Amino acid sequence: MRIAFLGPPGAGKGTQAKLLASELRVPHLSTGDMLRAAVKERTPLGLQAESTMKAGKLVPDALVLDLLRQRLQQPDAAKGALLDGFPRNVAQAEALTTFLPLDRVIYFEIPVGELLPRLTERRSCPACGTIYNLRSHPPAKAGRCDRDGTELVHRPDDREEAVRTRLEVYNRETAPLLEYFRSKGLLSTVRATGSVEEVQAAVRAALGRRS
Ligand code: AP5
Q1: Within 6 Å (CB) of ligand 1, which residues are found?
Q2: Which residue has a Cα nearest atom 25 of ligand 1?
Q3: DSSP, residue by residue, 72-104
Q4: What distance in Å separates the CA atoms of residue 189 and residue 129, rounded to the nearest whole number?
């Protein structure tokens, strides 16, 4: 199955993608995670993308498309993939149709007022990718990952100013994809408020999976 998660920054796409990808046994392909790994490893792509990401703007399409195409050639993506954070604009969506036509797009609908606190209070584990929230899902031991004890990080683009830019970019570049996918009959909308378990149930229902 080839699925994409669409929604504003902080809507909970990454949290839900980890759960669904493990259930469906397909890789969770987050272009944001791939780019952050490239930044951490100081690859040429990472060096090119770093300042753009920190400012909350989109990395050029060609770079992200190359990254995703290469990742999809790995054997684990042969049976499908769960895309998180891709496509981000109509040009990326059009390009995607040439190498990974989607079966379904899940849109995470959430009031904008919920996003800023979710992001400014997010912490994540740089080793295993587990996502925390200081308010709704804090780690058992402050500042440390429950799974591997690694020190948690606050993403540089989760500072308030970068979040505001990301929201503007989302409204301008990504929100038009709602109509794009709706017109193709691919879009399902889930309410992204409520607990992680409630949103997970809504995503499963949107995909016709029994609880
Ligand atoms: P990316 O990493 O894709 O970030 P994003 O889309 O802005 O999404 P986030 O990861 O911020 O949020 P999320 O929806 O995954 O929420 P999460 O589950 O973590 O992109 C980062 C940057 O990379 C971009 O700005 C761009 O520069 C670049 N980039 C990436 N892809 C690109 C592309 N295709 N083209 C060009 N550039 C690209 O949850 C957020 C918080 O809420 C967490 O603390 C979590 O614990 C909490 N939470 C989750 N669910 C709930 C719930 N139900 N109730 C309460 N709290 C919850």
Answers
A1: 7, 9-15, 30-32, 35, 52-53, 56-59, 64, 85-86, 88, 92, 118-119, 122, 131-133, 136-137, 157, 166, 195-196, 199
A2: 56
A3: HTSGGGTT-EEEES---SHHHHHHHTTT---SE
A4: 26
Rounded CA-CA distance 106/50 in Å is 28
CA of 9 to the centre of ligand 1 (A): 5
Domains of the chain: 2-111+173-206 (3.40.50.300)
**Over its length of 211 residues, how does the chain's per-residue pLDDT go in tens digits?**
999 999 999 999 999 999 999 999 999 999 999 999 999 999 999 999 999 999 999 999 999 999 999 999 999 999 999 999 999 999 999 999 999 999 999 999 999 999 999 999 999 999 999 999 999 999 999 999 999 999 999 999 999 999 999 999 999 999 999 999 999 999 999 999 999 999 999 999 999 987 6
Which residues are marked as active site? 13, 88, 122, 155, 166
Smallest CA-to-CA distance from 9 within 61, 53, 65, 63 is with: 53
Atom of ligand 1 nearest to the CA of 15: 18
Q: Cα(163) to centroid of ligand 1, in Å? A: 10
Cα 14 to averaged position of ligand 1 atoms, centre (Å): 6
